[in-house]
Amino acid sequence: MSKKRGSVVVASKKSLTKRIYEYRWIYLLGIPGMLILFFFSYLPMKGLLMAFQDFNPHLGISGSTWVGFKHFAKLFTDAKFYSMLKNTLTISFLSLLTFPAPIILALLLNEVRAQGYKKVIQTSIYLPHFISWPIVASLAFLLLSKEQGVINKIIESLGGEAHAFLFDKAWTYPIIVIENLWKGVGWGSIVYLAAISGVDQDLYEAARIDGANKLQQMIKITLPCIAPTVVVMLILKMGSIISVDFEQIFLLSNAMNRSQTEVFEIYIYNYGIASGSTQYSYTTAIGMFKSVVNTSLVIFTNWIVNRLGYNGVL
After folding, report:
1. Is domain 69-307 in CATH 2.40.30.10, yes or no?
2. CB 53 within 8 A of CB 65
3. Tens of pLDDT, residues 252-308
4. CB proximity list for 182: less than 8 A, separation 6 or greater
5. Closest of 39, 40, 53 to residue 288, by C-alpha
6. Which of 215, 232, 251, 276 is the most exposed place for a label (fewest CB within 10 A)?
7. Can you tell me whether residue 11 is helix, strand or coil?
């Protein structure tokens, strides 16, 4: 059935019940995921109430004293707050600069025509994603150690002087960026390869007939076609702009580079766990501050994307 409104034909919408029944098996498949999301993501959010209390584990959330924004005021007046914020934002923005790397890698892999060779490359670049951060830190030590590092051995063999890269503050951020690239660029390219595989091949055929070379096909066809995917991934990336990987920073941190590696995650660990302190409410307030900033950045980025004519995630 359809009805006319002026000169426009508007199809009558199915009722919600009919649509749910029509896609009942898809909804059924999604129930386990929704249950996991509810029990492990939404239900624990009641713990955020601790940020507004002087939480006492013996009294629980319902029995602890409410103190309003006391812990947030303490956070913003903490002598280390701006230093932690600067370090976190520096690491995050450096990570954001590597955002195009998986896109470029996916574009290059898409041009590899020998399937056997392509699979070997893909396996090689995906593998680091499954290597834990302690192993990555050990590899970094084997490569960069002043006494026994491979890179320093090469430098010395060429007549140079060994350098303590892991203890040099000037090398802290470059090491973090290189580790992130090595570990994540291959896995991050999977999404873009999937998007590229959905591009209509007739577009490439038409471009070849018009005399377009490979680079022109990438710029004029591939990139515009995968732009919606790039936009979504960028929005999601902005949702972690004030968060860093705790394991990576913790394992890289030492007495010499602590001024560069003291971020919110390390501070929460040292102040709320390692020190034996019971500052549950204060550390919860720090985590909530991060969540609010990250959520705000997602909403703001999504708004900009919508204004530019793309479909965001909200």
Report:
1. no
2. yes
3. 998 898 889 999 999 888 887 776 667 889 989 999 999 999 999 999 999 998 888
4. 128, 136
5. 53
6. 276
7. strand
Q: What is the pLDDT of residue 277?
A: 65
For 29-64, letters b (16+ CB in 10 Å) and e give eeeeeeeeeeeeeeeeeeeebbbbbbbeeeeeeeeb
- Bridge partners for 11 per DSSP: 2
* Cβ pair 95, 245 in contact under 8 A: no
| 208 three-state secondary structure | helix
pTM for this entry: 0.82
Strand stretches in the chain, DSSP E:
2-5, 8-11, 53-54, 65-66
Sign of the C-alpha dihedral computed for residues 109, 111, 112 and 114 taken in this order: positive
Look at residues 151, 140, 97, 131 and name the one whose alpha carbon lies nearest to residue 253: 140
Render pLDDT for 72-118 as a digit per residue (tens, 0 to 9).
999 999 888 999 999 999 999 998 888 999 999 999 998 888 888 88
Place of tokens 């812990």: 71
Token duo for residue 41: 């993501």
Nearest C-alpha neighbor of 179 from the set 126, 235, 248: 248
Give CA–CA dist 110/95, Å, rounded. Answer: 24
Q: How many Cα atoms sit within 13 Å of 265 on the Cβ side?
A: 19
Please give the pLDDT value at position 1: 41
Helix/strand/coil (H/E/C) assignment for every residue in 111-135: CCCCHHHHHHHHHHHHHHHHCCHHH
Domain residue ranges in the chain = 69-307
Closest C-alpha among 113, 178, 114, 115 to residue 143: 178
Q: Reduced to 3 states, what is the DSSP secondary structure of residue 69?
A: coil
